[in-house]
Write a structure and sequence with these properties.
Distance between the termini: 52 Å
Number of domains: 1
Radius of gyration: 21 Å
Order of helices and strands: HEEHEEEEEHEEEEEEEEE
Number of helices: 3
Strand content: over 45%
């Protein structure tokens, strides 16, 4: 496993930027958490010249809910990673650069019950679009290609605390991940259908939200054009995050995804990124919108060729829920 020395000051530089950019609360101003009543917003729609409250509360509450992968908030996440720097033993010069966009709708489906007693199925499709991916074709020799990588679908059942008897602050869900061989280039995917368990565990307060979200994929069926010599899929995707809520709908934290490939060579199995981001939830028209900017670099990465560092811009608009009532009743 290669421990990269590329851009070791990226995270420190972002921390300095965030400390200088995030506005401090005015003296005596408190932070609004998920359980607080949202303030009135000046506008023509509500009584006495105030706008009606948004359905998910204040912008602080929206940002806190977006940090919880099992909340009832529908959203459409656009996660641009670029430039991304790739390097390894196969590359003799400067790191190769690429970029991608991951589109991820988050659609919580109310299954049964309502309020704090609601059973919820979280559906999270993952659609990776590659703009310029360096593909090794020899020592220090690369092609650059774009296209679609393998898509995935995460399905997580979130039972209410009244059923699990867990603390209300705990985030808990179990389910499955499904992988689909949709890659438009053999180098972008595994050419194999896959599936495996998924678990979401975390803790939420008015101050922060922490989450561990591992998903493991096992291959079970080949695409027709898959080479018989290609090993079956046995891969881990492990999101770990901590989001700290700040005044005026600002947040700071990290949310990298660790990857592990059990069938890769011994020095190429792990990629372990660390990073830091700052985000702000605003309103565009009537739509809450979270904007997140961050940097990551891989403390551990593949020896032969792997991701070393990347810049991230994530834009997440909240979208209206298409299913308002529980599918199986129980209201």
């Amino acid at each position: 496993m290669h421990r990269t020395g590329l851009a070791p000051g990226l995270v420190a530089a972002l921390a300095v930027f965030l400390l200088s950019a995030v506005p401090l609360a005015a003296h005596g101003q408190g932070h609004e958490g998920a359980d607080d009543h949202p303030p009135h917003e000046v506008g023509p729609e509500g009584d006495h010249g105030h706008a009606a409250h948004p359905p998910h509360g204040s912008l602080d509450n929206v940002g806190a809910k977006l940090a919880n992968p099992l909340s009832d908030l529908w959203s459409l996440q656009f996660n641009f990673q670029g430039p991304t720097f790739w390097d390894g033993d196969i590359n003799a010069g400067s790191p190769e650069m690429g970029g991608n966009l991951i589109v991820q709708p988050v659609m919580p489906l109310p299954l049964y019950g309502s309020g704090e007693d609601e059973w919820r199925l979280i559906t999270r499709p993952v659609i990776p679009i590659l703009f310029s991916q360096p593909i090794p074709k020899g020592f220090d020799d690369f092609n650059y290609r774009g296209g679609l990588a393998d898509m995935a679908l995460e399905l997580v059942l979130a039972p209410p605390a009244s059923f699990t008897r867990l603390p209300k602050q705990m985030i808990f869900g179990v389910g499955a991940g499904l992988g689909f061989p949709t890659s438009t280039n053999d180098a972008f995917g595994n050419q194999q259908f896959s599936a495996g368990p998924a678990v979401a565990l975390g803790w939420k307060t008015k101050t922060f939200t922490s989450v561990l979200f591992p998903t493991y994929f096992f291959g079970y069926a080949d695409r027709s054009d898959r080479s018989r010599s290609t090993p079956d899929v046995s891969q881990l995707s492990f999101l770990y995050s901590l989001v700290v809520n700040l005044p005026q709908a600002w947040q700071i934290g990290f949310n990298p995804t660790i990857t592990y490939d059990d069938k890769a060579a011994s020095g190429d199995k792990w990629n372990v990124p660390i990073g830091l981001f700052g985000s702000k939830t605003i309103k565009v028209g009537r739509t809450p919108l979270n904007i997140r900017v961050g940097l990551e670099y891989s403390a551990v990465s593949q020896d032969t060729f792997g991701k070393r560092a990347n810049f991230r811009v994530q834009i997440t608009p909240v979208v209206p829920s298409l299913i308002q009532k529980s599918i199986f009743g129980g209201d």
